[in-house]
Amino acid sequence: MIMKTLPSRFKPWIYRRLLSLGASRSWCIHPAVHRLPFGLALKTSARETSINETAALRFLEASKTVNLNFPFLVDSTTDGTITYMLSTYIDGDCACEVMEGFSSQDWRRLELDLRGQLTSLHIQTSSHHHNICSAAGGIIDDPRMSWVAEGALELTTTQDFFAQVWLGLDFPWNRDTIRPAIQPLVDRPVPVSLCHGDVYPRNIIFPGGVEAWRAGKTRLCLIDWEYSGWMPTPWEALKATFIEAELDSEWQIVICHALPEFGEYLDADWLWRSKSRMMII
User: InterPro entries recorded for this chain (predicted)?
Assistant: First the structure.
C-alpha cells in the first residue's frame, strides 16, 4: 500500500484532500467515516480514541488471532488534533439494521457466532500478569466508568478494576443489602485479556449481507475497536449490556447466551445498577 511508504508529514494533507473529495462524491457514510474506492474506509476521530483502535488492530494482525473477524488496518497518522485511520471497508449489513427481522434461528446463530469469536479472543490473549490498560497501553478511558480517565486512575489489579465498576458498596444503604452479593466478585482474581469493549449491534457487520451470513457463507465482523483494552475478561459482558434497561431485552439475552461464563457478573451488575442508587454520567 502506497500510503505506508509516504513520509508522515504528507499524509494528513492527503487524507484531508480525500475527505474534501468525498464530500462531493457522497463517500461519507457516517460523520466520521468515509467509504473510499478500492474497498477502503477512512475514519477520523479524536487522537486518543483512534490511537487506541489502531493499537488493537495492529495487535490482532500481529498475533494472527484465529476465529476472529476484524477490519485490516492499512495506515494511521495524525496532524496533532485529528487522527486519520485507513482500513479495509467491511461491506455488508449492520446488525442494528436487520435484527428486527430475525427469526429464533437467527438469534441462535448470532449467539454462537459471537461466542466463538469472543471466546477465541479472550482465550488467546488471556493473562494473569498483563497490566490493566487501554489497547494502546494508557489509562482506561471508557464511558461506563469515565471517572477513571478523569482522575487518571491506574488500576493495577482486577480488584481495583471492579471496585471502580461497582462504586458505593460501602455506602450505608448498600453495605448490608447489595454488597454481600457483589463484594465476593470484586475480590475474586480473574484473568486479563484483550476485550473489544463495545460489543453492540451497531458494531457488528454481516459481510456480504445478512442472507450470506444466514446461509453460513460468512461470519460476523466486529468493527470499531476504540474502547478496546486489556481488561478483566468479564468486562466484555458487562460493557456489552450496560445500556440495557430490561433483563429480558433481546440484546441482554444474546450476551447472556454468548458469554454464559460471566452470568454471575451480569447478575451483580444488574443488581448494582438497579439498587445501588449510583448514577453513571
Answer: AGP_Transferase, Aminoglycoside_PTrfase, Kinase-like_dom_sf
Q: How far apart are CA 90 and CA 223, in angstroms?
A: 8
Per-domain boundaries in the chain: 2-88, 92-275
**147 vs 241: CA distance, rounded Å:** 19
Residue with cell 492527503: 14
249 to each of 94, 125, 176, 241, how far by Cα in Å? Answer: 19, 30, 29, 10
Strand-by-strand arrangement of the 204-207 sheet: 92-94, 204-207, 221-222
Give the residue carrying C-alpha cell 509516504.
6
Measured distance CA(15)–CA(21) in Å, rounded: 10
pTM of the complete model: 0.93
Fold of 2-88: Phosphorylase Kinase; domain 1 (3.30.200)
| Predicted confidence band of residue 176 (pLDDT cuts 50, 70, 90) | very high
Place of cell 465476593: 184
CATH number belonging to the domain at 92-275, selected among 2.60.40, 3.30.70, 1.20.1740, 3.90.1200: 3.90.1200
pLDDT, tens digit (0-9, with 9 covering 90-100), for 58-79: 999 998 777 899 999 999 988 8
- CB count within 10 Å of CB 69 equals 16
